[in-house]
Description:
- By secondary structure, the chain is an alpha/beta fold.
- It is built from 14 helices and twelve strands.
- It has a seven-stranded parallel beta sheet with strand order 8-7-6-9-10-11-12, sandwiched between helices. A five-stranded parallel beta sheet has the order 2-1-3-4-5.
- Helix 1 (14-23) packs parallel to helix 14.
- The protein starts with a strand and ends in a 14-residue tail after the last helix.
- The model has no long low-confidence stretch (mean pLDDT 96).
- The protein binds nicotinamide-adenine-dinucleotide.
- Nicotinamide-adenine-dinucleotide binds at residues 81, 106-107, 110, 160-166, 183-187, 216-220, 222-223, 226, 244-246, 270-271, 295, 297-298.
Amino acid sequence: MSKPKALVTAAYSEEGLAFLREHYDVEYHNWMEQGRAFSEDELLDMVEDKELIIVEVCDLHKKVVDKAKNVKIVGCCRGLRGDDNTLDVPALTERKIPVLFAPGRNLNAVAEYTIMLTLAAMKKAKASTKWLNANNWKSWLDFYITFRTAELQGKRVGILGFGNIGKRVAKLFNAFEAEVVSYDPFITDEKVYEERNVKMVDLETLLKTSDVVTLHMNVSDESKGFIGKEELAMMKNGAFLINSARAVLVDHDALLDAVKSKKLGGVAMDVFYSEPATTENEPLLAFDNVFATPHMAGTTNDVIVNHSRMINDGIKALQNNEKPDFVLNPEVL
Length: 333
Ligand SMILES: NC(=O)c1ccc[n+]([C@@H]2O[C@H](COP(=O)([O-])OP(=O)(O)OC[C@H]3O[C@@H](n4cnc5c(N)ncnc54)[C@H](O)[C@@H]3O)[C@@H](O)[C@H]2O)c1
């Protein structure tokens, strides 16, 4: 008997594909290999006969959903937050098609990256590399005088937002023997912090006493521009601000002022106000004490393994008439 057809445009692990191939005749077009998401027209050509469709960065808007008239399960290999409207979930729900997703697929990747950003800022990675490459190292003691850096051990790290990534970040900072404090107005049970060796503090205490402030909130109307002029002024002189979450959490002009005035000891950021960021549209990139990377915290290959496993677990659950752990529209089950 011929197998039902599946389309996978997500990057998928070998093991994940092997499982899918046991149950489906799989057409695998990894978007990463062609270097861009498939267009609507390209998807329209591919979806019609598929019972399973798994995407990562490709949009599934109404036209494509309508064309996919045989589809029974959709998987999207992303965390799918509120700031994302790439899937027409209402149209899929109306047809009782479960939409599997992969929240937390990159939580460890982002947490590890946050440590890298913090260390890069504290150890002056950008300024020192630039200095070395410009042949400024004349006598071997130069570096002692030119670069004074800092250690994490014994420093206070303030985590804003104690969600999935914030909690993992806390564990990693604890391994450096930093003193970890956190503020999250939506997590009020002190035990959640204490059992992770984190002290629950109010916002003002966090800002005024932390040597490192690292952002891990989700974006909402309230959290946009959450760190503004006043909050930056409250921070310790020479403190470090780390942003691997979303740029809009910090007021851009206030941040630029805090960098220019050297109020902050350094900034490390993976996320931008306008992406792709360039030296034309982002003045922060010009500063030696701003270590910046192109939104790449979640680019580990391990993330591909994680999302493939999460989506496949969802498919297995549906095959067994069980409720998957991660389904966007459980009401269809
Ligand atoms: N750089 C990257 O590639 C990358 C990858 C994944 C996620 N992220 C970002 O990382 C951030 C954290 O992700 P997550 O999965 O941990 O999210 P999450 O939803 O698990 O946690 C977010 C936490 O922020 C808290 N929060 C909301 N408003 C707050 C406020 N005003 N002050 C303090 N805390 C507040 C919430 O209560 C929640 O506990 C998000 O902004 C996400 O978009 C970035």
